Amino acid sequence: MTASRRPGSTRSRVAAVVGIGAAAAAAAIVLAARPWRADVGGGAPEDRVRSVCRAADREGAKAADALADAALADPSPLVRQAALVALGRLAPPECRDCVEKATRDGAPEVRAAAAAALGAYPDEAAADRLGAMVRRDPEARVRKGAATGLARHRSAKALVWLMEAGEQEPSAEVLAHVVAKIYERLGMRYIGATQAPDDARANLLSVIEGLKDNVTVRKAFEQYGRTLEFNPRYYVPPLGEPDLRRQGR
């Protein structure tokens, strides 16, 4: 039997994240025909990445312990990252603490994968950890991963963290990603640039400012007793509509 190549398979997801090439993917199909057991600890890092993919695709949640061990203990960041992508797909409840622990990994690519995976766990502590990461992690890729996790979290608190992070984000590229994830969280699609130059930051902040009139955003801030502060520097009323804020809305 050959390994799954469907778009939603773990191999597809990991390949997208860690950049497994066509030759490695072909080798994974050959390896998949061999006798299977949930063991991701042998061989070169690329072999262990393929083992992680097979563990998730074939065993699912039954491979949770092996995936958690790889996520925390494998010496290769590539393998730890792949294991976290797999755990994010499966979201086994018993691995929730393992995923959060991995958000403090020394390798930024591992922290980014852990942040995206942590969004699969619906507790508020997960949202708070992601909120801290999206605002404070020194690596842009990690802040983007945290924004992805917050959009996935789906809670009102996650939406608050996304909005607040957007206003504080110094990088236009990360800010564009945060804006796209806010739109995703609100059930919309952001059609602006996702690879924004630095001079686009003001335009992106205007988008954030406009989203403060969204009913879901307002309710999320009210639910957690947070102040939704308006910045007239970036606010642009919709074309042809009155400035409702100045009319006391």
- Helix-strand pattern, N to C? HHHHHHHHHHHHH
Number of helical elements: 13
Largest sheet: none
Question: What is the CA-atom radius of gyration, in angstroms?
Answer: 20 Å
Distance between the first and last residues' Cα = 62 Å
List keywords for this structure.
249 residues; mainly alpha; Leucine-rich Repeat Variant; 2 domains; 13 helices; elongated; disordered N terminus
In short:
The chain has 249 residues and is mainly α.
Could you characterize the architecture of this molecule?
By secondary structure, the chain is mainly alpha-helical. The chain has 13 helices and no strands. It has helices at residues 10-18, 22-32, 45-59, 64-73, 77-90, 96-102, 108-118, 124-136, 140-153, 156-168, 172-185, 201-211, 215-223. The protein is elongated and about 60 Å long.
Q: How would the blueprint of this fold be written?
A:
Layout: H1 10-18, H2 22-32, H3 45-59, H4 64-73, H5 77-90, H6 96-102, H7 108-118, H8 124-136, H9 140-153, H10 156-168, H11 172-185, H12 201-211, H13 215-223
